[in-house]
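---------- Forwarded message ----------

FYI, see the Nitroreductase family protein record below. Original note from H. follows.
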Amino acid sequence: MSTQKIIAGYPFISYSHDTYETSEMIAQAASFEDWMEKRRTVRDFSDKAVPKEVIEHIIRAANTAPSGAHKQPWTFCVVGDPAIKKVIRTEAEKEEYRSYNSRMSPEWLEDLKPLQTDWHKPFLEVAPWLIIMFKRIYETDDNGKKKNNYYVQESLGIAAGFLLTAIHHAGLVALTHTPSPMNFLGEILQRPENEKPFLLVPVGYPADECWVPDIHRKPLEDVAVFY
Ligand code: IYR
């Protein structure tokens, strides 16, 4: 049972968290690592339906992410309607065609070769759900005054991490897709002026035949420095 106390006029509740003996803690941390290691970015989706209820849980989980001054400066737009998915695919492919054919540098195109991506984005129609994260740059108060949110980019990045982890935990797969520029998403989904597209995440089951690049993660020594 939680108890409340008032500190400088603001309510606080007492908090405790499950803790483990050292050996169990190591086992927990290691098994989570193994399970996270199994997550892969997927582009070959099945069109098999995923219940809306699952997506609702996943978004509630992402919504637990910490954010600047707890402003939760995000909106998750969820598209399951095939007609809207089709428009999104058409507009994304228009931009991606231009990107692959004139906007991206030769170095960038070279770096993408191991992933074998191109401007075709069938997954935008095949995946049963598209979750589009919008960042809320500012809020407008009752008097119409604009108030900027804090650390919006960082907050959205953390929430995206939670979202991807929740999708993995549900036994589903996702792609972190950033068609560029992606202003068309705000127009199609009729988002207000204070919201800008951040990330488009198709979610679903992997296709029966699903291929991912044989690429590997950097070892700990290359990504961590202990002092
Ligand atoms: N947005 C393009 C290109 C692309 C860019 C990066 I950086 C990637 O890691 C993968 C793709 C696309 O989605 O194809």
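H. also flagged this: Residues 96, 112, 115, 117, 177-180 surround 3-iodo-tyrosine (CB under 6 Å).
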